[in-house]
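REQUEST FORM: STRUCTURE PREDICTION
Request ID: SP-0412
Submitted by: Lab K.M.
Chain count: 1
Length (residues): 369
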Amino acid sequence: MRVYLATAFLAAALCYLVTPFVKRLAEKFGAVAQIRSRDVHTLPTARWGGVAMWISMVLTFVIARHFSLIGKIHGHELQGIFLASTFVIILGMADDRYQLDAITKLAGQALAAGILLLYGVQILWLPINGVTTLPPSIGQAVTVLVVLVTINAVNFIDGLDGLAAGIVAIAGASFFAFAYLLAVVNGFSRAGSPSLITAIIVGVCIGFLPHNSHPARIFMGDSGSMFLGLLLSAAAITLTGQVDANAITAEDHGPTLLPLLLPFAVLAIPLMDLILAVFRRVFSGRSPFAPDKEHLHHRLLGAGNSHQRTAVIMYFWTATLAIPVTVLAFWPWWAALVTAVALAAISISISSRWFERKKFIEEKTDALL
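STATUS: Completed
RESULT:
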């Protein structure tokens, strides 16, 4: 555990130190978010935060090669993840600077998924009715779909200072806990890569948050949201689709469906926001890629919450869904239930103040009218 904690700390420190230099670079090359009608920031702000995360990841990879245990993990899969993440960073940098259209970005994301496939990062089976082995073509299609959905789910919640980085850090920590249990405690070699990837995800998010919390000095931009989404999807694919679920159950680490439930649990809030946005736009006759100001964080802000409070509310919503599922891997179901109830109580308490504030604002508005 100490080695992985050191890796996460190293990634955090590097990201914290590198980000100011990337900020100046973004400003020099014009990668700056101007003020648009759907935005919540009030000043032009540098993008390319994902570049700082990518640089931190690369440096962490190089240094971590000399760590015991972690140095043995470097292999074919991590090469593919490095190349795919480099590709999405370049794509994201171009989008942050020149505002690429949605179809071009989607095609680029699919190409990044193709790079993962070339290096063996692919869903081989799903833990359904025991273990269901997927035909290669189906496995490849599901892999690309998972990558596209995860990248865009993270992208959709990146609309508020510190929101995406905080939620991804919680998701990454939940993934790490389960992957570490399998890789280090029980010797599942296939879980080594996701353990390293998720440790780095948590680190770069923590290192980036001081620069990205309200008021943000730099945004992660599409370079950052696509980068984090790709890493999360790669970790989920490697952990869920390549570790034998029956072997997990035999070791008494939760139900067979746990590897399948975990990705949905840790990404539930971004996925819900993505699904709601697509349905909302399609039913109103617009393109599912058409931007709007009706995301979950927009609604919380509209109810009178501050940027910081809105982010905290969504952090707790994420933790309420993600942490209890992870606890199932370590302790009996009743412990997961107690954890879920405790987190739900905190989330309800925080959210109830949102509803009270919303009701108060509506009453004041009606009175003025």
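NOTES: The chain has a mean pLDDT of 83.
Reviewed by: T.R.
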